Amino acid sequence: MKRVLIAGVSGAIGAALAEAILAEYPDSRVVGLCRDPGRAPETLHYSDRVTLVPWDASDSGSLASVTDALESVFPAREGIDTVVYAAGLLHSDTVFPEKRLEDLSANAMTQAFAVNVTGFGLLVQALIPWLRHKELKRIAAISAKVGSITDNRLGGWYAYRTSKAALNMLVRGLSVELPRRCKPVACVALHPGTTESALSEPFRQSLAQLKVHAPCQTAENLLKVIGDVADDDNGRFLSWDGSELPW
């Protein structure tokens, strides 16, 4: 991993992945995207191998500034070898996981899909010129096991579950098209496992019986999975331990 782009780099998983990549791959450079670069860890601000770029997953207009900044770091002719989409929305000031159908709102669905699905698709669309080189490209979307249709036995969390299921379908669709245009490429969905973060904080009590990883542990796990991905893994839904999950 030498030329890496991480979307959502100010979040717990995105930041930890960036730090892990910098530590494990001394020749790597990272372009980190997030809504407010000021919220990214100081270690990323101080690294001369990191470029932080403002980007809003729900605003397609922000992609023009992203591609301009990217060209100055990784010219399109050199390309990117790793893309990680770590942006995600489970809750906000106006959105909270639904316990029953009456809690469902159009606003929550719209926000969840904008961040969890649409942002990923439009980012990959914008990155096509950087994915045409002849080396293996790894594109990993951080999904969630709760987005598995087969595994859903509890219900609820409508906006988050459906948006992650849609993200998984987007990954599958891209895994069909991208090899025709950017071969060799592996586009995969990844379940990071439950991670200590602002996303999981409101559910600390209910998560007590689950195995919860620190962000650095999650990053270590995901980095191993991503690093082991080959082009014949294209289109898979993988868990943090490398096992395959049902769609």
Please give the count of helices: 6
> Would you list the SSEs in sequence order as H and E?
EHEHEHEHEHEHE
Radius of gyration: 17 Å
Q: How many strands appear in the DSSP assignment? A: 7
Class computed from helices, strands and strand pairing: alpha/beta
Amino- and carboxy-terminal Cα gap: 28 Å
Largest sheet: 7 strands, parallel
Residue-averaged pLDDT: 92
Principal-axis shape equals globular
Uncertain runs are none
**Beta strand %:** 5-15%
DSSP helix fraction: 25-40%
Side by side, the strands of the main sheet go 3-2-1-4-5-6-7
List the helices and strands and how they pair.
Blueprint: E1 3-7, H1 12-24, E2 29-34, H2 42-46, E3 50-54, H3 63-73, E4 82-85, H4 106-127, E5 137-142, H5 158-182, E6 185-191, H6 215-228, E7 237-239
Parallel strand pairs: 1-2, 1-4, 2-3, 4-5, 5-6, 6-7
Helix pairs in contact: 1-6, 4-5
List keywords for this structure.
247 residues, alpha/beta, 7-stranded parallel β-sheet, 6 helices, 7 strands
Describe the fold and architecture.
By secondary structure, the protein is an alpha/beta fold. Helix content is 36%, strand content 15%. It is built from 6 helices and 7 strands, in the order βαβαβαβαβαβαβ. It has helices spanning 12-24, 42-46, 63-73, 106-127, 158-182, 215-228; strands at residues 3-7, 29-34, 50-54, 82-85, 137-142, 185-191, 237-239. It has a 7-stranded parallel beta sheet, sandwiched between helices. α4 runs parallel beside α5. It is globular, with a radius of gyration of 17 Å. The two termini are 28 Å apart. The relative contact order is 0.15. The mean pLDDT is 92.
